[in-house]
Design brief:
Blueprint (H helix, E strand, L loop, with lengths): L3 E6 L6 H10 L1 H9 L2 E6 L2 H10 L5 E4 L16 H6 L4 E4 L2 H7 L3 H13 L3 E6 L3 H5 L3 H12 L5 H4 L3 E4 L13 H19 L8 E4 L7 H5 L6 E4 L6 H11 L2
Parallel strand pairs: 1-2, 1-8, 2-3, 3-4, 4-5, 5-6, 6-7, 7-8
Helix pairs in contact: 1-3, 6-8, 8-10
The protein binds phosphoenolpyruvate.
Amino acid sequence: MRKKLLLGNWKMNKTPSEAKAFALAASEMVDYAVAHNIEVGVAPTFVSLAAVKENINPKCIVAAQNVNEHDHGAFTGEVSIAMLKEVGIDWVILGHSERREYNGETSPVCNLKIKALLAADMTPVYCCGESLDTFEKGQTKEWVSKQIREGFAGLSAEDAKKVVIAYEPIWAIGTGKSASKETAEDTISFIRGVLRELYGETAEEIRILYGGSVKPANVAEYMSEPDIDGALVGGASLEPDSFKGLIEGMLK
Ligand code: PEP
């Protein structure tokens, strides 16, 4: 049985003091989610990770939005796995479409990062998803299949089941134009099919989230689909009330 997961991606929002205020406000809702068998987490910017980790309910996952695949060295502006671990972080989002677009994060680079994280007993959240043009040309499945195969290259089934996938159609991110639950399920069940091809029955254990304009009002629709195990949420994860609404929506 795959556990439901709600992960908030705060992107480049909230100063450390604002992030801390959210952390302090979230204590009860994290307990509520966990009591109802939902895992929850937030992904602040690097400079807010320590403040959030120190002040949030310890049952809440705190994830970074990126990590470098090298141990240390001349990589100006980058953050290593050891640095994250020292502030108590063991989840990392990888391959978000914004990082793919603005920071040249490719699937093969994500593959190196996934391997480095797994070797450090950390959990990668690997994002995939197609542009509007690819969607309109009917090439979504080909596109995400490549992203999944490249991201998971060389992973054993044992490793693969520790990775969380987030399917996020780029045209639905931050646009208010969410994919229908049928479209999301169609692609996510296809991704599970690719994983089945690669890993057999282990594919049933890998969590796949939907992301793209998820809100308290529509999260229940996605959760009603058999292959969708939760949501990666940007805008609607920023305020405690809305985050609580997402948790409640997941339980409908
Ligand atoms: C995201 O940042 O991953 C995301 C899905 O954003 P939004 O929920 O705002 O569309």
